[in-house]
Design a protein that fits this description.
Blueprint: E1 7-11, H1 16-27, E2 31-36, H2 39-53, E3 56-60, H3 66-80, E4 85-88, H4 103-130, E5 134-139, H5 152-172, E6 177-184, H6 190-196, H7 209-217, H8 228-239, E7 250-253
Parallel strand pairs: 1-2, 1-4, 2-3, 4-5, 5-6, 6-7
Helix pairs in contact: 1-2, 1-8, 3-4, 4-5, 6-7
The structure holds nicotinamide-adenine-dinucleotide.
Nicotinamide-adenine-dinucleotide (NAD) binds next to helix 1 and helix 6.
Length: 259
């Protein structure tokens, strides 16, 4: 098993790619703390995983709260006895508009894509160090690698994530803590629908989200969205010891969209 004996956290682990990742990591032998705002959804997943794969816990709460973002780390360490990896997967699309921007949506995007990720990371570093090293993984986006006409504010945040990853990779290298990002393209999860259905997205707001998604994925060279499992597979590699000399990368999982 590729994560035998490892202990880790997956934020936003109750749905989509986070859920696929938590499932994959548990199957590969890790003890996993699933963190999500929707405790019932996370608990349903944990119940299924516990039956076959042992140690899985749920930490339900809002990662916008600094106190909770820190608590996620301390509760995992208390329950499982240490920490080897964190997948900081939580994020938010934010507003589509720049002119007439909704600042409350801007703040939500910054809080979830950047602030909560910083706070969780700050709390995690001493515990990773105490184990002699570990892996930090972040979810950026292809909008963190190239500009996005539809999501300039999201792109602003995800470029920030990539900058943080590259900087931390250098800073934490002496501690044997590897730091990487996955950069998904369009991925078939509820968030993809949230993106295209944003009320301030003028080009698509009057169309059915499913139709917008169907049209949008035609622009991807692969002609389809990623499946959550395909992103989780990349996450597994970056977290596992198979990536022992890989740090500071922002890996597109995008069906050649940014090629
Ligand atoms: N889906 C895509 O097309 C796509 C593409 C690129 C990047 N991303 C990134 O992937 C991540 C989201 O992943 P997904 O598509 O798997 O989403 P999803 O919609 O399937 O799941 C998001 C989860 O986050 C949880 N959540 C929301 N707000 C929270 C909060 N305040 N505190 C704790 N949990 C909270 C929700 O309850 C939900 O379970 C984000 O970082 C997003 O920017 C998504």
């Amino acid at each position: 098993m590729r994560l035998e004996g490892k202990i880790g956290i997956v934020t936003a682990g109750g749905s989509g790619m986070g859920r696929a990742g938590a499932t994959r990591f548990a199957k590969e032998g890790a003890s996993v703390a699933i963190v999500d705002l929707d405790g019932a959804k996370a608990e349903a997943l944990a119940g299924r995983l516990r039956a076959d794969h042992g140690k899985v816990m749920v930490i339900a709460g809002d990662l916008r709260r600094d106190e909770f973002a820190r608590e996620v780390v301390s509760r995992t360490v208390d329950a499982f006895g240490g920490l080897d990896f964190v997948w900081n997967h939580v994020g938010h699309p934010g507003p589509a508009a720049v002119e007439g921007v909704d600042m409350s949506q801007y703040e939500l995007a910054m809080d979830l894509n950047l602030r909560s990720v910083l706070v969780t990371t700050e709390a995690a570093i001493p515990h990773l160090r105490a184990r002699g090293g570990g892996a930090l993984l972040f979810t950026a986006s292809i909008a963190g690698l190239a500009g996005s006409a539809y999501s300039p504010i999201y792109s602003m945040a995800k470029f920030g994530v990539v900058g943080f990853v590259r900087s931390l990779a250098k800073r934490l290298a002496p501690d044997h803590i590897r730091v990487n990002a996955v950069c998904p393209g369009m991925t078939d999860t509820p968030m993809l629908r949230t993106f295209v259905a944003r009320p301030d997205q003028p080009s698509t707001s009057n169309q059915v989200p499913e139709m917008v998604v169907r049209q949008a994925v035609k622009t991807v060279p692969f002609g389809r969205a990623a499946k959550a499992d395909e992103v989780a597979n990349a996450a597994l590699f970056l977290i596992s010891d198979e990536a022992s000399y890989v740090s500071g990368i922002a890996l597109p999982v995008d069906g050649a969209a940014t090629a």
